Structures are given as C-alpha cells and as structure tokens.
Amino acid sequence: MALKKNARVVVVGAGPVGMVCALALNRRGVPVTVFEAEPEPPVEQRAATIHPSTLEMLDELGVTQKIIPLGMVSTAYRFHDRVTNTVVAEFNLDLMKGEFRFPFALQYEQYKMTASLAAEYANGGDFDVRFSHAVTGLTQTADHVDVEVSMPEGPITVRADYVIGCDGGRSTVRKFAGVEFEGFTYPERFIKIATPFDVATLNPNLVLRNYFSDPNEWCNLFKVRGEEPGGLWRAIFPVQERESDETALDPGRIEERLQKFFPKPGRFETKYVNVYGVHQRVASSFRAGRVLLAGDSAHLNNPIGGMGMNGGIHDGINLAEKLAKVIHGEANDSLLDLYDRQRRHAAVKYVQAQTIANKRLMEERDLVVRRKNFDELRKTADNPETARSYMRRAALFDSLRDAAAIT
C-alpha cells in the first residue's frame, strides 16, 4: 500500500532520541517534523557514552563513522576502591572483537550529536526541525492528532498521523496523553563537575571511564572532548538529602569533593557544575492511541553505566521501524503495541535493574558486603567467559535480544 497522502509524524523534543528516531523514520520514507522548545540545541554536559550496541544501530543510519573521529574511543572501563586506591576490576572490550562490530564505547556528548544530525539531515520539508516551538496541547481523534504549538510568531495547530514524545523526564506529551510515570525518586541528588585539569596525571590507573566505590561518597569519572584542546574530565558524586544545593554548589565544597578522590596541590578549575534530582521511573505504557513515548519521556534512571540515552535511542530505532510499516500500510497499528511490550520490557528488566544494581555496588557501606562484591566483580572480570557475558549485558545487547523475542 502506498504512503497515505500528507502522512506526517510529529516528534516532540530534538534531543538525541528524538533526532535519531526522526532520522530513522525519514530514512524509511516517512515525513517528520520535530518540535523543540529550546531556541537551539542546548550545550549541556549530560549523557556522553554511546555503547557498542547503539553504535551498530547508528551505523545503519550512516552516522557512526562520521562521529567516531569527533569523540573519544573507550575500550575499557575500571572499577576502583577509593579507600585502598586500587583497581578492583577492569572490563576490556577488546575481548569482544569478532562479536561486537564496534568493540568500544564512544565518548561523544549528546548535544553534539543532536546538533550534527540537525545540521546535516534536517534541511527539507520531509525532515523539518523547528526550534523555539513548544508543544502546548494535544487532541487525539480516531485518525489523527492535532498538536498545539507555541512559537515566536504566535500559536499554530499542526495535524499529524502520530506524535512521538521525546521531550524528557518532565514530558508534556506524556502528561497530555494521561500516562502515569511509575517508580521512585532518590532522596539524594547527584552533582556533576567538569574540570579541564588532566586528572589522569594524578592517578596512573585511570582510563576514560571509571567507577570509584566508597562507603561514604562514591564517584564516577569519565572523559569527553569538550570544546577546548585537552578535553574535560566529568565527575559525578552523590549529594545527600541533608546537604542543600547551595552548600553542594559552594566552591569550597566542590573543591573538597574533587580533592577527596583526586588530591593535588592547588585548586581545580571547573567549567561546569550542576546538581540534579535522580529518578527510577517507567511510563505505565509507551503508547496511548496515536501518541507514543521514547527515551526519558518513557523511562528515567540514574546515570551510572550510561544506559539512559542508549536505551532511549534503542526505543527510537525500534519505534521507527514499526511505525514506518504502519504508515506505509504494511502492518496494522497493533504493531505499535508490540513496540510498547518490547521496549517497556527492556526498560524494566535491563535499564532499571542494572542501573539500580550499579548504584548499590558503588555506595555499599557494609565492609563485609563490600569485600564480597569486590571479590565477585574481580572474579567476573578475570574469567574471559564471564567477562564477555558481563559486557554483553552492560552494552545492552542482552536487552535487545530479549526484547526482540517478545511477540
């Protein structure tokens, strides 16, 4: 069956998930309009790790080979014990050569990917990206969705066959669709600190991705290119409930956190500091009629392990494949219910479960349990077979396999 006359999908949110989903739809011959409330792609130090499974998906869209030279290739990640200043375990993706098409993760900031996709692909009526366009309402009927949009010139209403909400954890699309966001919010917050100082000069055991366990205050440390020569080291720490944002953002407290894990003479220069809440939530459904959800709009998790953006991109690719078939008349819209079943399963069983477990490992206080956890992690890393199994799961290949088996 031919494409329905004037068929169009509206994607709300021009982050990495929205832009990849829009590109995947466009490559399948579906006209797409992306609405983004911000005036331009915001330069935010948010997600930056692209896992091997996601690199394979992006390669099918012609993106991966273009972004590899722009990012930093990370073949290994290490777990450290801050108390003893030792490496507990290393997982090296070189072991996955021959199994993974890309046996590495790519450190590439999400705002750069968003901007590059918009600049290279979104330049025509069939792939139309509009910044400074905020969605203010949705009205569904049996055969279309009317999207109310606020823009600088005044309000407009756009008619779409389907709407995809990729507009983040506070998703207006999800709220307009009446979908519950089930889960919990951690009592503590996280603080992210970016410094141009080369932290690797302080610790010879550092690689590009590092996880430091500590019974009182853990830390994740990883490197990105940033905007200047030398790149940025980004550290994430917990902020306990009793500590106010004002205290956490005080320069003296920021310095104290960095010096605890990476002692050095003199103060650290910082380029970026932010305190934010952390959630573990999944939408009760990823579909409400002609409205669909993907990425943070559909599921939120703590950032330990870098699974949020990757899981969201997996949502977008899965949805684009199915929605294109529906729009082209190759399948009825019950196929979109399969999207909901597959990706919600992946979010709950893998992304939620793994990120919760990662956080517990980092923050464990019981000395006996910490020692047992370290022994198990070391044993897993030292055995090539168990190490490969660990890395398959961490790179979300297991989640893709299990989701694909759901019918």
What would you note in describing this structure?
- The protein is built from twelve helices and 20 strands.
- It is of the alpha+beta class.
- It has a domain of about 250 residues: FAD/NAD(P)-binding domain.
- The two termini are about 25 Å apart.
Strand order of the largest sheet: 6-5-14-15-16-13-17-20
Q: What would the CATH topology of the domain at 9-72 and 109-183 and 280-383 and 400-404 be?
A: FAD/NAD(P)-binding domain
CATH architecture of the domain at 9-72 and 109-183 and 280-383 and 400-404: 3-Layer(bba) Sandwich
Number of helices: 12
Which CATH class of the domain at 9-72 and 109-183 and 280-383 and 400-404 is shown? Alpha Beta
Termini gap: 24 Å
Query: Into which percentage range does the β-strand content fall?
Result: 25-35%
List keywords for this structure.
FAD/NAD(P)-binding domain; 6-stranded mixed beta sheet; 28% strand; globular; 407 residues; alpha+beta; 8-stranded mixed beta sheet
